[in-house]
């Protein structure tokens, strides 16, 4: 899990395993959620998004799950590869139309 | 298609000075948003511009300002710099404003205030 503005949680997985990164968002009125990946020295890169009228969305090797009841978002990465090592952020678009980001989770993939 | 570009990439300023950062969005993108990223506070939204108008503003003091030009390029300005303004400033562009449009981030400008 992660806390906005505090420490950076870490997740270490073995290459080929599945990764699950969690995020708790703050505003029950938020209607749009995004996962970003940020590698060292680069800006965040869009991975996948989901709207509040959905509870699951799949991309290539990634799945986002949304549980509005407990305001929880997760990112699942299948068959994690060394190139997946990065910091992953969730973001919510609030009813004021501004973006709020989680603190991020650092994913390390061990070969 | 070229990505979002930000200049300069690195900048060192002293307290009390002012700074202007520049962002060129992806060609055809009309919305530009600015973010501040620090180890302590993470990524925080500064403001969003669309068609030369500020559409939305985050919770930052008035020392932080921005503008957008007719070609969609954007600048942000920070006046009377403080040590706490040291951060990575990220710009993101999208086709239009609102949540329907994917944002593409630039590499950021690393500002150090001494």
Jot down its keywords:
heterodimer; A: 111 residues; mainly beta; 6-stranded mixed sheet; 4-stranded antiparallel sheet; 10 strands; globular; disordered N terminus; B: 114 residues; 7-stranded mixed sheet; 0% helix
Write up this protein:
The complex is a heterodimer of chains A (111) and B (114). Chain A is 0% helix and 51% strand. With 111 residues, chain A is mainly β. In chain A, the strands form two sheets. In chain A, strands 1, 3, 4, 8, 9 and 10 form a six-stranded mixed β-sheet that branches. Chain A has a four-stranded antiparallel β-sheet with strand order 2-7-6-5, with no helix packed on it. The two termini of chain A are 24 Å apart. In chain B, the strands form two sheets. In chain B, strands 2, 4, 5, 6, 9, 10 and 11 form a seven-stranded mixed β-sheet that branches. In chain B, strands 1-3-8-7 form a four-stranded antiparallel β-sheet, with no helix packed on it. In chain B, a hairpin with a 3-residue loop joins strand 4 and strand 5. The termini of chain B are far apart. At the A-B interface, strand 3, strand 4, strand 8 and strand 9 of A face strand 5, strand 6 and strand 10 of B.
The profile of the biggest β sheet of chain B is: 7 strands, mixed
The value of Rg of chain B in angstroms is: 13 Å
Amount of beta strand of chain B: over 45%
* Greatest interface: A-B, 26 and 26 residues
Computed Rg of chain A: 13 Å
Unreliable stretches of chain A (pLDDT < 50, length at least 5) are: 1-6
Shape of chain B: globular
The SSE string of chain B, one letter per element, is EEEEEEEEEEE
The largest sheet of chain A, given as strand count, sense and whether it forms a barrel, is: 6 strands, mixed
Molecular shape of chain A: globular
**What is the end-to-end distance of chain A?**
24 Å
Q: Count all strands of chain B and give the number.
A: 11
- Percentage of residues in DSSP E strands of chain A: over 45%
Helix amount of chain A: under 10%
Class by SSE composition of chain A: mainly beta
Poorly predicted regions of chain B are none
State the helical fraction of chain B. under 10%
- Number of separate helices of chain A: 0
């Amino acid at each position: 899990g992660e806390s906005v503005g505090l420490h950076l949680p870490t997740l270490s997985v073995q290459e080929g395993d599945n990764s699950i990164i969690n995020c708790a968002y703050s505003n029950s009125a938020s209607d749009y959620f995004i996962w970003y990946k940020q590698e060292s020295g680069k800006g965040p890169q869009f991975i996948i998004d989901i709207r509040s009228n959905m509870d699951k969305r799949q991309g290539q090797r990634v799945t986002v799950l949304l549980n509005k009841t407990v305001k929880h978002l997760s990112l699942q990465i299948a068959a994690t590869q060394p190139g997946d090592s990065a910091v992953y952020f969730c973001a919510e678009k609030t009813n004021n139309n501004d973006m709020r980001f989680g603190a991020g989770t650092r994913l390390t993939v061990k070969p | 298609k070229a990505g979002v570009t930000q200049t300069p990439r690195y900048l060192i300023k002293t307290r009390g000075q002012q700074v202007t950062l520049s962002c060129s969005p992806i060609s055809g993108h009309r919305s530009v948003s600015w973010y501040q990223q620090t180890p302590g506070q993470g990524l925080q939204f500064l403001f969003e511009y669309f068609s030369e108008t500020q559409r939305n503003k985050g919770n930052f003091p008035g020392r932080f300002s921005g503008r957008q030009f007719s070609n969609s390029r954007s600048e942000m300005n920070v006046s009377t710099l403080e040590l706490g303004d040291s951060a990575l400033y990220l710009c993101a562009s999208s086709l239009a404003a609102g949540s329907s449009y994917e944002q593409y981030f630039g590499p950021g400008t690393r500002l150090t205030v001494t």
